[in-house]
Write a structure and sequence with these properties.
Strand 2 and strand 3 form a beta hairpin. Helix 2 runs antiparallel to helix 3. By secondary structure, the chain is of the alpha+beta class. The two termini are 23 Å apart. A 4-stranded antiparallel beta sheet has the order 1-2-3-4. It has a single domain, classed as Nuclear Transport Factor 2, Chain: A. Keywords: Signal. Pfam families: DUF4019 (PF13211). InterPro entries: DUF4019.
Length: 142
């Protein structure tokens, strides 16, 4: 599963570059993944590690232990301060990502202004799981 996380990190880096250059078409609506992303980001903003964990995909949970997750995200987010503004940049739907099983994925980019960082790009990778729910499998901030 660590290989899957590394692959998702690489995909996020590539997509961040694409989002920055506008290579991925923005404005594409994917309602269910968007709602899942908004819910997950709201939990991240409220620093609710356990709730974020509960909303994450199985592959995400397999890649990091809950105890590690409870310390990792706050370390990344707290220095940034509170979210002042977040704008959806683009969504890319795909059924294949390198190094992970085929399935339904949505890769979403957000331009976010934090209290202590004027401009950051947040990338969420969501996966449609067997129960039909969209859940976060990757989250990256640049």
């Amino acid at each position: 599963m660590k290989k899957h996380f590394s692959t998702l990190l690489l995909v996020a880096a590539i997509l961040t570059a694409n989002l920055a250059t506008g290579a991925i078409a923005s404005g594409k609506k994917i309602d269910e993944p968007m709602q899942a992303a908004i819910t997950w980001l709201s939990l991240a903003d409220a620093v609710k590690a356990q709730d974020r964990w509960n909303q994450a995909a199985g592959a995400f949970k397999a890649g990091i232990e809950l105890q590690d997750w409870e310390t990792t995200l706050p370390k990344a987010r707290q220095p940034l301060g509170a979210v002042k503004q977040r704008k959806h940049l683009a969504t890319e739907a795909t059924t294949a990502l390198p190094g992970v099983p085929d399935g339904e994925y949505a890769i979403m980019g957000f331009q976010t202004e934090f209290a202590n960082k004027k401009s950051a790009t947040e990338i969420l990778v969501l996966q449609k799981e067997a129960d039909g729910a969209w859940r976060t499998v990757g989250y990256f901030i640049q």
